[in-house]
Amino acid sequence: QQSNVTSYGAMALAIITLEVFVGMWINAFIVCVLCIAWVKKKALNSNEKILLLLGCSRISYLCFAWVYHFLSKIFPNFLHVQTILQLLALFGTSFNYSNLWVSACLCGFYCIKIANFRNSFFIYLKVKIDRMVPWLLLGSEILALAMIIVTYVLNETLQRNNITFTCQENFWEVTIRKDKHLFSSHFLAGLVFAASFTVVIFSAVFLLFSLWRHQRTMQTSSMKDLNMDAHIRAMKSVLSFLVMYSINFVCLILTILYSMKKENIMTLLIYIYLYAFPGVHSLVLIFSNPKLEKALLKIPSCVK
């Protein structure tokens, strides 16, 4: 059974390495196209700013997460060096939080820009959203950094408790304290996952409701509106986000539940999906953005 798990682990490592390589190239393509447009136009619109930060976050996340995963499988004793372990985990988790929140901001941006409601607060958001985007992105990075600092403090406290454990009679006390710190760390991670997932759900619901209202208006007036095409295009993107985010959210929660257990086939399948998510989601973003799609379709002719 141990040999089967080892073979599955080697196969999973090969698949994850391929996924990371493809995902980094896809996100690097997004970053390169947007940077070239930035140099030419000397400016980026709000959608492009979010996509640029999202691409950078995903490249960094895939890089650090793969290095950590690779070292843990090939050189497990190497991670016993505390500084290296903390740095890899710190950077990987930080960029993962940034990835989740920035992608949630993208879904919220699509919803506010395209959906039509007569609510005064929603109209205010629609008018001010372009000015709010840089602050939202900055806030996302600050929140990700704050969560990492809190997680680091909790881990330091946990390790200090383990080091000071010397007496057998204090075993139950140390175990309970360890469980409390692990629960706090996992609770924070689950809070991040749930917050970003909630934004995606509400964005999809509001866009769907706005599309339904707009379609009824067009049927009664017997007119064709270009806004309908924008609604449908955004709805396809956000619904695809919602499906992938639902699976991703379940996998992220399962990683928390399986974190205290030994490696098994379930955890390997979960990690295979988690490493595939940044690349697949970014590919959907490319085909939902006319500029990125046009640049992608130019590549075969340039190669020829």
Automatic annotation (TrEMBL):
Belongs to the G-protein coupled receptor T2R family. It comes from Cardinalis cardinalis. Pfam families: TAS2R. One of its GO terms (cellular component) is membrane. The keyword Transmembrane applies. It is found in: Membrane. This is Taste receptor type 2. The keyword Transcription does not apply. The chain crosses the membrane at residues 12-39, 51-71, 83-112, 133-154, 187-212, 238-259, 265-288. Keywords: G-protein coupled receptor, Membrane, Receptor, Sensory transduction, Taste, Transducer, Transmembrane, Transmembrane helix. One of its GO terms (molecular function) is G protein-coupled receptor activity. InterPro entries: TAS2R. Its main location: membrane. It comes from the Eukaryota. The lineage of its organism: Eukaryota, Metazoa, Chordata, Craniata, Vertebrata. It is a multi-pass membrane protein.
